[in-house]
């Protein structure tokens, strides 16, 4: 796997310095023990309140240093990637921030963290510091295990402890709130890949169509492998494991955590699936979706839940300084506002009408374009962003879905309706261009009942607004010669002209319009334009039905 870094030995210290350089001016600092002892702390800390300290191995960013700030952590101690910080590092952090009211250590339940933070706490007590430690063991992946792992639910404890410390409560009280919270948290993770560590060889243990349920935040194997399936099914499996651990009738806060590499689009799909599941009825507060406790570049997510009471709700909704903490939002329904209505028919077009020949033609065209979705996407993946097939198929499906609403007995009205449908549902530049094409053709057809002349008029308007002409390596290279041939009344000749036009784009190594214009000549050579291929296929269908 590829990574952005300089040297493996310096990646953590450089990352922490990057955090400091981009944080709010003067709010964060590091101790001068860097890089051997890596402690990030509040620059404005005056030791008048209970200090909240957490930490662990790097690789979980923004945890832990990203949560240092007013209302959350006072200091974070970092080890190397996935390695617990040393006893000396933790002890140094305690000495740096603990005042008369003492310090609370929040520790994830991993052996290294427990031992190093634990010994540091004992040494600090021997030096006269008042120190308490809370261990978080929220992972429910492995049933009946004596030492569950501490994962993203730890962030609930950071937030709750930080809130009570900020209220100037004493150490015993802050620790009690933190410990009670830790005992009421459950978490479960799911991933489609393991993570890779910069500078180390990586081999993904998962198959092409496998995911892993319950793997740890260091890439530890999960409790089971599952086949790749729709998000709703994956979430249903997780909900079935999480739900029995929750107290019946209680409200909960949900943290939706990105483990590192899930795109924001997919994270919101996951959020929708969770909140639409039976578990959604038990959620009052939502934090995320966001990368909050990651596992480097793991392509996965985790769900963490904590039972709410008034004190926890106040703590979780209180404003804090660290930007990495996502403000909690209350569970709510989607608001829907009525779209403006047009006065007549389909998007302002005439009322429906029937024509068997036109229905057969439009159906055949749409079904052909839908069947070519994967092929056109593969072709576009070599010269563009890989979505031409999906865009065209979406438009075709939309037309089929509205076929019974089309004025099929009136060609001009049908063209106008097609323009409306594609402009609304197809998306991308192709949808707009084809909407212009059909809309302009409809106007010309209404003025004079000549379909060939009307389509040429549509092409004229499309090229005027789109800017592409023959030779620019676009759908125009197939559409223009086809329509010119169609003007003579020869449908077969039009199909041949479209096919020849699409084939000609293979030798055009310079695109002057569309996404392919950003691609180099080497990548374009020998590859046909997918839009032109789609047009050629459409004319082939028309010819076969003529």
Question: Strands, helices and their partners?
Answer:
Blueprint (H helix, E strand, L loop, with lengths): L10 H12 L5 E3 L7 E5 L8 E8 L16 E7 L5 H11 L5 E6 L2 H16 L4 E6 L17 H13 L4 H12 L2 E7 L18 E4 L10 E4 L3 H12 L9 E7 L5 H13 L6 E8 L9 E8 L2 H8 L11 E2 L25 H16 L1 H11 L4 H14 L9 H15 L2 H20 L3 H16 L9 H11 L4 H14 L16 H4 L5 H16 L1
Parallel strand pairs: 3-4, 3-5, 5-6, 10-11
Antiparallel strand pairs: 1-2, 2-4, 7-8, 7-12, 8-9, 10-12, 11-13
Helix pairs in contact: 2-3, 4-5, 6-7, 9-11, 9-18, 10-11, 10-18, 11-12, 12-13, 13-14, 14-15, 15-16, 15-18, 16-18
EC number: 2.7.1.29
GO molecular function: ATP binding; glycerone kinase activity
Pfam families: Dak1 (PF02733), Dak2 (PF02734)
Question: What overall form do the CA principal axes indicate?
Answer: elongated
What's the CATH class label of the largest domain? Answer: Alpha Beta
Helices, by number, come to 18
- Taking strands numbered 1, 2, ... along the chain, how are they ordered across the largest sheet? 9-8-7-12-10-11-13
Q: Please provide the count of β strands.
A: 13
Number of spatially distinct domains: 2
Looking at CATH, the homologous superfamily of the largest domain is Dihydroxyacetone kinase, domain 1
CATH 2nd-level architecture of the largest domain: 3-Layer(aba) Sandwich
How does the major sheet shape up?
7 strands, mixed
Unreliable parts: none
Radius of gyration based on Cα positions: 31 Å
Name the helicity range.
40-55%
């Amino acid at each position: 796997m590829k990574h952005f870094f300089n040297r493996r030995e310096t990646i953590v210290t450089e990352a922490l310095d990057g955090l400091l350089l981009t944080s709010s001016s003067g709010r964060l600092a590091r101790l001068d023990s860097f890089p051997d002892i890596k402690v990030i702390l509040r620059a404005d800390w005056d030791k008048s309140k209970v200090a909240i300290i957490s930490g662990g191995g790097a690789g979980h960013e923004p945890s832990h240093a990203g949560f240092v700030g007013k209302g959350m952590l006072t200091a974070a101690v970092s080890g190397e990637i996935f390695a617990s910080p040393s006893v000396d590092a933790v002890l140094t952090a305690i000495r740096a921030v603990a005042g008369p009211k003492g310090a609370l250590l929040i520790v994830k339940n991993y052996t290294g963290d427990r031992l190093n933070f634990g010994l540091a706490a004992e040494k600090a007590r021997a030096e006269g510091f008042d120190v308490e430690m809370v261990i978080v063991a929220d992972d429910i992946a492995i049933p009946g295990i004596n030492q569950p792992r501490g994962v993203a639910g730890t962030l609930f404890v950071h937030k709750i402890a930080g809130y009570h410390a900020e209220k100037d409560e004493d150490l015993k009280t802050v620790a009690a709130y933190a410990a009670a919270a830790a005992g009421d948290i459950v978490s479960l993770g799911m991933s489609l890949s393991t993570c890779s560590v910069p500078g180390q060889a990586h081999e993904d243990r998962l198959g092409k169509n496998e995911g892993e349920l319950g793997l740890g935040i260091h890439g530890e194997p999960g409790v089971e492998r599952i086949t790749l399936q729709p998000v709703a099914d994956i979430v249903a499996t997780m909900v079935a494991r999480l739900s029995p651990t929750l107290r019946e009738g209680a409200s909960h806060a949900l943290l939706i955590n990105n483990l590192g590499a899930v795109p924001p689009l997919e994270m919101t799909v996951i959020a929708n699936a969770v909140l639409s599941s039976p578990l959604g009825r038990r959620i009052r507060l939502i934090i995320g979706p966001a990368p909050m406790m990651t596992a480097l570049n793991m392509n996965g997510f985790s769900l963490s839940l904590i039972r709410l009471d008034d004190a926890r709700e106040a703590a979780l909704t209180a404003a804090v300084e660290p930007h990495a903490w996502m403000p909690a939002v209350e569970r709510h329904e989607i608001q829907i506002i009525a779209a403006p209505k047009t006065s007549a028919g389909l998007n302002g077009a005439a009322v429906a009408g029937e024509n068997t020949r036109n229905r057969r033609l439009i159906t055949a065209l749409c079904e052909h374009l839908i069947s070519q979705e994967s092929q056109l996407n593969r072709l576009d993946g070599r010269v563009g962003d890989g979505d031409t097939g999906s865009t065209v198929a979406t438009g075709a499906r939309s037309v089929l879905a509205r076929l019974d609403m089309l004025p099929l007995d009136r060609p001009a009205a049908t063209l106008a309706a097609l323009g409306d449908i594609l402009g609304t549902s197809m998306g991308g530049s192709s949808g707009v261009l084809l909407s212009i094409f059909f809309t302009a053709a409809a106007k010309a057809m209404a003025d004079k009942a000549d379909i060939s002349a009307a389509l040429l008029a549509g092409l004229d308007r499309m090229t005027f607004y789109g800017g592409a002409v023959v030779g620019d390596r676009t759908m125009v290279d197939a559409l223009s010669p086809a329509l010119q041939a169609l003007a003579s009344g020869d449908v077969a000749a039009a199909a041949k002209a479209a096919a020849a036009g699409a084939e000609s784009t293979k030798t055009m190594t310079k695109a002057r319009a569309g996404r392919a214009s950003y691609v180099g000549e080497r990548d374009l050579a020998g590859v046909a334009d997918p839009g032109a291929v789609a047009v050629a296929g459409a004319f082939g269908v028309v010819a076969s039905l003529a």
